[in-house]
Write a structure and sequence with these properties.
Number of strands: 8
Radius of gyration: 17 Å
Helix content: 25-40%
CATH topology: Rossmann fold
CATH superfamily: Vaccinia Virus protein VP39
Strand order of the largest sheet: 1-4-3-2-5-6-8-7
Order of helices and strands: HEHHEHEHEEHEHEHE
Structural class: alpha/beta
Largest sheet: 8 strands, mixed
Oligomer: single chain
CATH class: Alpha Beta
Amino acid sequence: MSRKKMVRFAENEVNPNVIQAGKPIFETIKGHWNDSQFQNQNPIVVELACGRGEFTVGLGREYPNQNFIGVDIKGSRIWKGSSTATAEGITNVAFLRTQIQNLSEFFGEGEISELWITFPDPFPREGDEKRRLTSPRFLDMYKPMIKSGGIVHFKTDNTGLFDYSLELVKSREDIEVIAFTADFYQSEMKDDHHGIKTKYEKLFSDKGEKIKYLKFRFIA
């Protein structure tokens, strides 16, 4: 392990906005994010596969009356978002270091108001479908954690994953599709995101890739 990573991991261990194994709160946070982490009752918004946390922190800046949690397994990436939030005094942002398949261990029923799935690995091989973050396995996991009427946002540059996800959610009786577009930055929805881009979204956009976006909710 490089010295830089060692320093970052050490800072994650003491930064209060990083929830990870080894901290007492890691074992008790489920159902208690508002009281234990944020000390308020504001809505909780979760970003999956948050990477360096650009989007999580950006949303935190724009919406001080909501709480934002970025989820990723890579401690060195989470460190960047954590450090940025700390340096800017953004107290409504936190990061959870865990595998996304373990998400239900950290959020109680109806604890999440909105969920963002931003540029996940597309896992294009047919045999890898269950690993896609919009597969039935994951949708069924998210459903009880999201409050009634809560919104799920999905953004990707991958056409195959977008088409798969859109077809899947349209086929489910327990999901209502609110909006979708195959060219987000040419759509009327782009201003709702305040120009906040992840590192990978900027990379894809700069290469001319069209960003796809899907917005839906669970209704039953």
